[in-house]
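Our working data are protein records whose layout never changes between entries. The record below serves as our worked example for the rest of this section:
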Amino acid sequence: MPSIDVSATASLRQRALRAGSWNLVSQVASQLMRLGGNLLMARLLVPEMFGVMVIANTVSVLLHLLSDVGLRQNIVQSPRGDDPDFLDTAWTVQIIRGFVLFVLTLLLALAAWFAQLADVWPADATYAEPVLPWVLAATGLSAVIWGFQSTKIDVAVRTFQQKRVVLVDLASQVMGLVVMLVLGYLTRSVWALVIAGLVSALAWTLLGHTVLEGPHNRLHWERNALKELIVFGRWILLSSMVGVLAMYGDRIWFGASMTTAQLGVYSIAVLILGAVQTALMKVFGAVALPAFSEAARADDKERLKALYHRFRLLVDLLVLFICGGFLTASPLLIGWLYDDRYREAGPMLAILSLSFLTLRYTLAHQVWIALGLTKYQAIDNIIRLVSLWGLLPLLLALGGVDWAIWGVALHTLPTLVLIVYVNCKLGIFSLKRELIVLPMLLVGALCGALLTAFFNWL
C-alpha cells in the first residue's frame, strides 16, 4: 500500500514557523472565545453550575487519559505515520476506545447516583449535587463522538499543514459557543454547557472527515500496525494514567472538601490559568514535536539539540514573564472580568500561577517522545502523582483548602530532579541557560505590580 504523499519543499524552519503562526492564531482566537463565553455564562449561571461541570469534565478527561495509548503522538512520530493501513488501524482502535469510555462513564454516573442515595457525601459537597449523575451520563457521549475523529488531523499536524486544522478547530468552537450562549440565555441551566460541548465535538469530527485532505478512514486491522501502536503506546498509557490523576487530583479532592459554589469559584481560576497554559503548550508542542521528530528520524543529534535550545529560550522568556505578571496582577484581572461572587478566584489564581515555573520544562517531554523515550515521561508523571496525592490530604488536614492550593501550585517541583538527570544524559542541559532567563520572572512581577498600582490609583 503506497504512503500518503506528504513531501514538502520548504525547509524545516519555514514549515515550523508557518505551523507555529497558525497555531498561535488558533490558540489566541480559541482562548478569547472560551474566556468570552465563560464571562457571559458567569452572568447567566450561578457558580454552583460551574462546580458541577468541573466534576463532569474532570471525569471525562480522566477516562480519556487513563486509556490514552498515544495514537496521535505515534502517528506524528512513526515512520509509518503516513501509511493508510497504519492510520486505519489506529482509527479502528480509537473507535473501540470511544465506546468503552462511554460505557465506563455510564457506570460512574450510576455509581454517583447510588452514592447520593446512600448519603455518602456531606449535603453541601459538590458530589452530592442531584444533577451530577445525569450530567455525567450526558457528557459521556462525547467519547463516542471523539472516537470517530479522522486521522487526517494527525497527518496534517505531522506534516506542518496546520491551516485547515486550525480553521476546523475554530469553526467547531464557534458552533459550540453559539449553542451555549443561546441555550444559556433561554434555560439558565447547566445543560447549556453540556449540550454545547457535544455540539462542538460533533462539528469537529464531521469537519475533520469532510474538509481535510487525504483518504477517508475505514475500519481496518493490521497486526504489525497494532503491534507498533502497543509497543509505543504502553509507556504513553502508563504516563497518561498517572499523569491525569496528578493533573486533576485537585478537583477530585476538592469535590469532597469544597462546596459547589467554592468549587465553581476555584474553576474560574483554573480556567484562566489553564487557558494560558494550554495555549502555550499547544502552540509550542504542535511545532516542537514534529520538528524534534524530524531531526530524530534523521539521527541528527546536534540539530535536535540546537532546536531544543532555540525553543527553550523563547518558552522560558515568555512563560517566566507571564508567571511574574500573574503573581502580582491576578486580583486585578479577576476584578476586571468577574463580579464580586468570584472575587476569591484572584488570590487563588496568583498562587496557582507558580506552576508556570515547572510548566516550561514540559518542552523536554517533546524531545523524549521524539526519541521514543516515553518511559521518562511516565516516570515524570508518577513523581507528580505521588507528590500531589501525598501533599493534598496532608495540607487539607493541616490548613484546609487555603493550604491545599499551595500544594497544587508547587507539587511539580520534585520532577526537576528527573528532568535535569535525563537532559544531562541526552546532552541538552545547560545550567547557564537555566539561570540566565530567571530575571524575566521579576520583570513580569514588576509589570504586574505597576499595572495594579496604576489602576488602583485611578
Residues 1-10 have pLDDT under 50 and may be disordered.
